[in-house]
Amino acid sequence: MVAVTPETGTSMRYAWRVCSVTSLGLVLIGIAGSTLNVALPTVVRHFHADATQSGWILLAFLLVNTASLVFFGRIADLLGRREVYLAGFALFTVASLLAGLSPNVWFLVGMRVVQAIGSAMILANGTVIITDAFPPERLSQGMGVYIGTLSVAQLAGPTLGGLIAETAGWQWIFWVNVPAGLIALGWGAVILRKMPKRPKEPVDALGNVLVFAALSAVLLAVNEAGSGGLTSPVVLAGAALFVLLVPLIMLAERRAPNPVLDLRLFGGRLLAYANLASFCNALARSALILVVALYFQAARGLDAFSAGLSVLPVPVGIGLASPIAGLLGPRVSPYGLSIGGAVMSALGLGTLMLTADPATPYWVTGIALFVAGCGSGTFLTGNTTQVMAALPSGSLGVVNGFRVMIMNVGIVISVGLSLSVVTSSVGPALRAQVYAGTLSTLSPVAVGQLMDGFQRAYAVLFAVALTGAVLAALARSQRAPASLDSTSR
């Protein structure tokens, strides 16, 4: 039992205010993503976008966001987390305003890139700011609330996205972020304290360029493989460039005085397996709302608003499980929460795989989605607490950037892989109709073929979720490397 003193009471009040700021940031990013997932067919129809353009509306954000997370984690370690975090809010808000003014689809893709940079500045620092604010024995509670707010965004996002798409127009899918961004920027400027400046150190420019290039190459190759095949020139060139850059990154980072990726931080058992488990969980869960919303529109002919309501069990599950998992922190280890959550996620996806049929009653699908959501909420709370509590304080920014980057790689692969598996069952001529959500009006035969694609997509995600459960079981706790402890204080 920890004694409560006036000092600890003041500290906890500040910690919860910090949690409100970072949670608001997570809500902003989560709503921006989940509204577009449901409303994508509306945007596609407005711009008359083809299948390639449709995919890039989603993937441009994910690619740039993923490839720049480690960079902004390191920049925040050196220049100040508060400053970088607030700058991210400002950039994301401006980009959202301009996205709604897009004259064509490629301008929209460009604004999604700018949004991605602002999002990376927010995501690379939110978890670190919370970890700094909360004492170790209360960290799981703060993390549970923080992760749980993601479900608030995902809860409101699909319904809000569908409602906006059907009533206000596609522009408001982006403009709704503007007032939220301004509120987050103002509240953060008031609440967040300035962090003591660390001694100025040179930024690892070469390492940042090499890491960004390697991630971009491999993610572009993975995305192109679904539509162009493994022999596509883009796939071959991206894979070759990645293979070439990996040893160069390792050599450059070993020689750099302040490496963007300190390879010593990722050699331990906990970080290796916990990050791999996080990757699998992200891959298994991330495309779920997108795929299910697409299913209800393309296969069942529902409008965007109804499809948004249909996927609500996922964020409801995350929203209920995350704070409960946080409250269980003093009784159940983060390690146990990670394993339990990963198993629940696999159970939900396995049920969806076995019941992928238009005749399946919605209550069956809803329960499966709810179980998958509960599993993700439990896993995210346990896994994040497990990783952040084991790290030396001086490396929190770069390691959290790496952790979120690994999750985002899973998200990018999940979106690209799932969409490719689903649409491959209907052939190139009908893929645009799937993205536009109009396939159900064309042919019952085509809908039947599409259902085969959904079942295969769920099977792949189920297998990945099971792998994540095994990796979570291997991620046993250990102390941070002593050589790093001594240099991080």
UniProtKB/TrEMBL annotation:
It comes from Nonomuraea spiralis. The chain crosses the membrane at residues 14-33, 53-72, 84-107, 113-131, 143-164, 170-191, 203-222, 234-252, 273-298, 304-328, 335-356, 362-381, 402-422, 457-475. CDD domains: MFS_MMR_MDR_like. It comes from the Bacteria. InterPro entries: MFS, MFS_dom, MFS_trans_sf. Keywords: Cell membrane, Membrane, Transmembrane, Transmembrane helix, Transport. It is a multi-pass membrane protein. Pfam families: MFS_1 (PF07690). It is found in: Cell membrane. Residues 18-480 form the Major facilitator superfamily (MFS) profile domain. PROSITE patterns: MFS. PANTHER family: BLR6921 PROTEIN, MAJOR FACILITATOR SUPERFAMILY MULTIDRUG TRANSPORTER MFSC. This is MFS transporter.
